[in-house]
Amino acid sequence: MKLPERFIFRYQKIIPDFDFFLKSLEKKLKIYIRVNSLKANKKDIEEIAEKYDCEPLSFYPYAFKLKSERDEFSIGNTLEHFLGYIYVQDMASMIPPIVLEPKKYEKVLDLTAAPGSKTTLISALMENTGLVVANDINIDRLKALTGNIDRMGCLNVVITNLHGERFGNLFFEYFDKVLLDAPCSSEGTINKNYEVLNHWSEFYINKMAKIQKNLIVSAFKSLKKEGILVYSTCTFAPEENEGVIDFLLNKYDNAIIEEINISGIKTCPGITEWEGFNRNELKKCIRIYPHYNECEGFFICKIKKV
């Protein structure tokens, strides 16, 4: 795999243990599964863990890492997957809903929801109570979203097909919690999909950052006072991560970054200085790197509307 020279130049300055990071991109990712607490009981969990040769993850009691070599396709053809007892989901992808901490009977928005991995976890954390609005602009991706919500037995989810930028005005200060897992340049998925590099460029990064800024403004406007917004991406670009958060903080004085504490995962603090921003509190954001955790690369920030 040949990385663009500009990619190496950019990230060797901000990614720790950069040579180790580059080697990790050549390795096949570990497979993780999430047991569906809406359907599985304690006995089911024990049987699934034994059948799939899993080890538990400390940050969530229903999350497991497969010890044996398997692929997502073979697991997707199992009875447990078909019946909605398990969901194949990367470890890092589970973190944003965990950080969001949705509670029973709350109103929660998943602004860019398809294919539904985070939506179904939010529904499970809320024990099928309250309301989860799962939105996605891409009509084709709604098929996967609908299928996963149905398969996992999520009864508290409503699906919408709107431009995410509209929610801030249509549902002003309506939701208790909002998750914005934003569309991004997907650099964190390189070791799962090398094709990400085919369209990689700084022009593309800046293009995505503009979309993300519009979406995060809409997400924040739709959030109730004292509500929580979690912003996440699967990319390393500061323009799409800390730069978007800095933009929001400049626009709204009542947006406050909260600390994030996740057990069993090595996280790195957010980048505090890059082209266009310099803000010390951005270190409260977290970066999850593949070479430290055997998972996709992720960025997560937790924001409170005071």
Topology:
Layout: H1 5-11, H2 18-24, E1 32-35, H3 42-51, E2 54-56, E3 63-66, H4 72-76, H5 79-82, E4 86-88, H6 91-100, E5 107-110, H7 117-125, E6 131-135, H8 141-151, E7 157-160, H9 167-170, E8 175-181, H10 202-221, E9 223-233, H11 242-251, E10 255-258, E11 268-269, E12 273-274, E13 277-278, E14 286-288, H12 290-293, E15 298-305
What does this structure look like?
The longest helix is centred in the last third of the chain and has 20 residues, at 202-221. This protein has 12 helices and 15 strands. Helix 10 (202-221) links the parallel strand 8 (175-181) and strand 9 (223-233). Strands 5, 6, 7, 8, 9, 10, 11, 14 and 15 form a 9-stranded mixed sheet that branches. The mean pLDDT is 96. The protein has helices at residues 5-11, 18-24, 42-51, 72-76, 79-82, 91-100, 117-125, 141-151, 167-170, 202-221, 242-251, 290-293; strands at 32-35, 54-56, 63-66, 86-88, 107-110, 131-135, 157-160, 175-181, 223-233, 255-258, 268-269, 273-274, 277-278, 286-288, 298-305. It has 2 domains: 5-25 and 92-305, Rossmann fold (3-Layer(aba) Sandwich), CATH 3.40.50; 30-89, 2-Layer Sandwich (Alpha-Beta Plaits). It is α/β, with parallel strands linked by helices and 306 residues long.
